Amino acid sequence: MFKKASQTADSFDAATPLVLAKRACYPALITVFALSLFINVAMLTLPLFSMQLYDRVLSSGNINTLLFLAMIAAFFLILSGILDYARAGILVRAGHLFEERLRGPLFNTLFQSSTQSSPAHAQQYLREAQAMSSTISSGAVSTLFDLPWTPFFVVLCFALHPVLGTISVVGVIVLFLLAVINEMVTGKMYAATAEHGARANNFVGSVFASRDAARGLGMGDTLAARWSQISDDAATSGTRAGERGAAIQAVTKTCRFMVQMAILAFGAWLAVEREISPGVMLASSIIMGRALAPVEQIVAQWKRIVGFRSSEKRLAMLFVENMILARRTDLPAPTGHLAVEQVMVSVKPGMQPTVLGVDFDLPAGQSLAIVGASGSGKSTLARALVGANYTVSGDIRLDGAALTQWNSDALGKHIGYVPQDVELIEGTVAENIARFTEAAPEDIIKAAKEACVHDVILRLPDGYETRIGHGGQGLSGGMRQRVALARALFGNPALVVLDEPNSNLDEEGERALVKSVQFMKQEKRTVVLVTHRPQILAHVDNLLVMGLGRQIAYGARDEVIANMRGNKVAAV
């Protein structure tokens, strides 16, 4: 179960957080293996006690011998119980350690990933990590460590009598064949069930992310039907796998009972022939039951084991696909010189680029407005400038260093960004402005004042401690944008990218935005502003005109506007 998930992942073993999380569990698993040795040896207590009971106590009638044997047997059974408890506790801690080691890297990978950016996808991967942790903590791992001792118990049956050993071998082979058949019959079905279940979860996640729009458009019944259809695929696959798995499990249990019955029957025959004692007959039945139990339990736990393997494979591929997110060398704080070199941008890897061949150089401390018709690629380019979109070719450089050379979190501290669709995170206004860092109150207030929103925040019910719901619930669209602007200005970023920051602003908010842009220019910050409103253009130095994903014009604001008015550049 702990083998490498794929050949692709093998080459990245040293840097894959999933592999490191598994390696962190190895000491615990080695300890569990050692405990399994003593537990399985202690399991010989009952057969040995049975042999001595039949062969010594019943034949001699000595009660003292019975008491002495019972005390010894009780000691080893109690010891076995203590060891079993210790083994279970270690596995629980190993599962917790696995999740703890994987939690941070997985969150960061999903947070930075351009291929798994939807909330539904992120939640699915987090659930799979929790499922793997649960499997490690469960009895499935104990069963796997008990399985290697099956040959040991078979050898003991041979030691008692060759006939009993032969029956044991046949029984083990039959149960192993059933386990193989179970894998062949249900393995792909359980994997398909997991895939369908992930699709259903992703679909319902995307639906609820757009619930208000879908409800307003009367799409409830249609979306419910679509989700039901996807869920039916998962349920159908899971039901078939469950039915076939249950059938194989029932056959396995029946075979185990028949093998034990055969052991007793042949044991009785050998006892009648005086080749073995009655105690050996009973002991062989108990030993055989212990030998077959792990095989039977593997069949019962197969769904969980298959789920572990499927989750491991998907998580391994996720980390491999995002190896670019590995830690980078820390670079010095930038001044804000932005260079875009023949950049082609797509929303996700593998998708058709929607921004084609944009090229401009913006010196530190200057401002730029990006204008163009809807669908011209303005927001896609703005997201690429902060590293949120995938660059197919070309480079976006900040102070000469490509964005890919930066550690993403370190880069984010030097960039302020207000997205087109503002969504604040559940917490207080102060926490959102401070980007959820442990910031000094004066730094939070400073950013709010720079965004000209300090006085407005003070009018909220609890001021800076006013709680914001998921996505910014409790605040108007304009207020969310103004708080987002304060968040963008927090920490004195060298580059500030504002994507339609005035789309929801009233006249007062528009004036505040203008003051904020003027303040940023005075502070020599580089400002990139995406806008449809011409009023703000009077306060920028440069203008970039986009059309159909391409750069139509770039240069000083007055020069570009003059060219547009002279029809040298087609109006966009």
What does this entry look like structurally?
The chain has about 575 residues and is α/β, with parallel strands linked by helices. The chain is about 60% helix and about 10% strand. It has 20 helices and 12 strands. The chain has helices at about 5-10, 15-40, 45-60, 65-110, 120-135, 140-145, 150-160, 160-210, 210-215, 220-270, 280-300, 300-320, 380-385, 410, 430-435, 440-450, 455-460, 475-490, 505-520, 555-565, and strands at about 340-345, 355-360, 365-370, 390-400, 400, 415-420, 425-430, 465-470, 495-500, 525-530, 540-545, 550-555. The two termini are about 60 Å apart. The relative contact order is 0.09.
Beta-strand content bin? 5-15%
Physical arrangement of strands within the biggest beta sheet: 6-9-10-3-11-12
Low-confidence stretches: 2-14, 568-572
User: How far apart are the first and last residues' alpha carbons, in Å?
Assistant: 59 Å
List keywords for this structure.
572 residues; alpha/beta; ABC transporter transmembrane region fold; Rossmann fold; six-stranded mixed β-sheet; four-stranded antiparallel β-sheet; 20 helices; 12 strands; disordered N terminus; disordered C terminus
Topology:
Blueprint: H1 7-10, H2 17-42, H3 45-60, H4 63-112, H5 119-137, H6 139-146, H7 150-160, H8 162-209, H9 211-216, H10 220-272, H11 278-300, H12 302-321, E1 338-346, E2 355-362, E3 367-372, H13 378-385, E4 390-398, E5 401-402, H14 408-412, E6 415-418, E7 427-428, H15 429-433, H16 441-450, H17 454-458, E8 467-468, H18 477-489, E9 495-499, H19 507-522, E10 526-530, E11 542-547, E12 550-556, H20 557-565
Parallel strand pairs: 3-10, 3-11, 6-9, 9-10
Antiparallel strand pairs: 1-2, 1-4, 4-5, 7-8, 11-12
Helix pairs in contact: 2-4, 3-4, 3-11, 4-5, 5-8, 5-12, 6-11, 7-8, 7-11, 8-10, 8-11, 8-12, 10-11, 16-18
